[in-house]
Prior knowledge:
By secondary structure, this protein is an alpha/beta fold. It has helices at 18-23, 40-49, 55-71, 108-112, 117-131, 144-152, 168-172, 184-193, 249-259, 276-286, 315-334, 342-352, 361-364, 384-392, 420-428, 446-454; strands spanning 13-16, 35-39, 80-81, 89-93, 137-140, 156-158, 176-179, 195-197, 212-216, 221-227, 232-235, 265-270, 293-298, 356-360, 372-376, 399-404, 434-439. Helix 14 (384-392) links the parallel strand 15 (372-376) and strand 16 (399-404). Belongs to the PhoH family.
Amino acid sequence: MPRAKATKNDCKIFVLDTSVILYAHNSIMNFAEHDVVIPITVLEELDQFKKGNDSKNFEAREFIRLLDNLAKDKMIHNWTPLNGKTKGNFKVMMNGDHPQEKATIKNAIEIFGEEKNDHKILNAALSLKHSEKGRKVILVSKDINLRLKAKSLDIQAEDYETGKIKNISEIENTGKVVLEGIDPDVINQLYESQQVDAKAVLDPKKEKANTYYILKSDKNSVLAFYNAEDNVVERVDKKFAYHVKPRNAEQTFALNAITNPKIKLVSIQGVAGTGKTLLALAGALEQRRDFKQIFLARPIVPLSNKDIGYLPGDIKSKLNPYMEPLWDNLKFIQNQFKETDKEYQKITEMINTEKLVIQPLAYIRGRSLSNIFFIVDEAQNLTPHEIKTIISRAGENTKIVFTGDVHQIDTPYLDSQSNGLSYLIDRVKAHPLYAHIKLEKGERSELANLANELL
């Protein structure tokens, strides 16, 4: 049954903040039949972001192109239809659209005592609320503080929810299952022949591909993996990877996924000290002969929200502090050997010949990634669009491993439900090319565990 056409008063007006545009340039198209307003202040802010290679620069440029395409020969300070019969209208709202009303409506600049861009955006919402009586005006922003300011002015404010994970607990429990009461003969068979028919342990119709299991009987237990392609449950052994041995079941599962050639996409979630990056790097080094290059990358999150230009030195010196954690993991692996050992010397050679490359993520973006083992560290600081962009660059014989902690977000407009790592885990779970593992136990040191558990 077709939906009844909404009346003008039923259609809401959504006022978009700059943070929403920088998160998703096509956000203007995601408000169904409702109308969308872009304050002119937002366009002024986007003008400052349009140059550069970061994702926010890409989003700014794409939004400006989208707006230009929607406008064509129209004057966009008036209501202009969005593409599609089910879409509403949009317009760019000028500062002081209703100067005659200044005496009768609130003024955020006067109330908060400062002429900031945020306050100009709030004034746009206040003016709309006054001029569009009978219609609900809602400010949409990824900036929590701006939403709080809006609510203090009696403006309804919401986060941008598109792409946001509804239930974070669902992804917390993805990847590993503990099954008790398993027939001891099944466990014995796994130890003797490495695999059993999945029907002897699981209901294949209900199980997800590439799930890891701890199977327990009254007297014994075994680590296992569901191979959906062959419909078998396989035993998972603890194995060294470039002299790094997993210390618990979850690390064993993670290293198995990293070194499994049939799994092309892996995500590893866990708090600091659980060994995410170390395992990914060790697994990559173990498979160095199978790939042309090993790339390690991480997004740059400026210190104290200051641009990297604030740091002294040339571009290499500016970027080194951000890449140091990756070098630390590499040095740890290298120091498992003596300087005279060929394994130690091999790592040095790989760095010198750029067989192993550590770079900021911005330097990787735009490249075609063929025959590459690609590790992306701190993936929780990426947006869903950035995750999609990275994976879409994968060519033949490329494997990508994302590591991070969805609860340790360093960027101001992301949270545990809207970051790219959570989005990836939620959207790709159960795909035969993908495996996810959550590392639960810290292995860095007892002191690090104390910090994670008690502080």
